[in-house]
Specification:
single chain; 18% strand; alpha+beta
């Protein structure tokens, strides 16, 4: 009985969700305390590898499903889509620390849909990402580029940015303002060829 209690004590002290069949192995075989400790650490030394493999499998499954699902880029002019834009924006903003997260309602995006050129990615009838921009001569100002949190790291942002570039003439120049507190956005744009721009101030 003392041996099985030792195995159980390890489980509760570390408070780790060991799979039931691992605990049963300790009980049924009535392993010695030393052997029990050895097996315990043997199992958990592989835990990071197992978690990484599960994560990779999950990503591949999602990525495969996403490639099979119908991806469409649509131009959005209907202001009733403002609610969908707000939901995408709020989801994407969860990347910020909780104190810095901003929530938007549909009203903010009504004027954006009216005044800007907007494209959205539609997956199985639902918007998952959108880009908005306005033309100022040869400059194309990105006013928004947001992807739902659960759909990020799958190429949606790159797809929308490429779509914008396809709309521009050869001499068109896209530019965007990036918050200092959003380094992931800065890295994304730099990866796609954007360079930091510091305007000259004449005195």
């Amino acid at each position: 009985q003392a041996r099985t209690d030792a195995g159980a004590a390890l489980f509760y002290i570390y408070n780790t969700p060991v799979k039931p069949h691992v605990l049963l192995l300790f009980y049924r075989l009535k392993l010695s305390y030393a052997t029990c400790v050895f097996h315990f650490f043997l199992v958990f030394s592989f835990k990071p590898i197992i978690k990484a493999l599960y994560a990779l499998q999950k990503y591949r499954k999602l990525h495969t499903l996403r490639k099979v699902s119908e991806l469409m880029i649509l131009q959005v002019t209907d202001i009733t889509c403002a609610g969908s834009f707000a939901a995408i924006y709020n989801s994407a903003n969860t990347l910020f620390p909780e104190k810095e997260q901003a929530q938007a309602d549909a009203g903010i995006f009504v004027s954006q849909i009216k005044n800007d050129i907007n494209f959205a990615i539609q997956e199985n009838g639902i918007f998952s990402a959108f880009i908005s921009y306005r033309q100022c001569g040869s400059l194309y100002k990105l006013t928004s580029l947001y992807v739902k949190r659960e759909c990020q790291k799958m190429g949606s942002g790159s797809k929308l940015l490429s779509h914008l570039e396809a709309q521009m003439p050869a001499d068109g120049i896209p530019f965007v303002k990036v918050l200092k507190s959003a380094p992931w956005a800065r890295d994304f744009y730099q990866k796609h060829g954007f360079l930091p721009y510091i305007p000259l101030v004449l005195r």
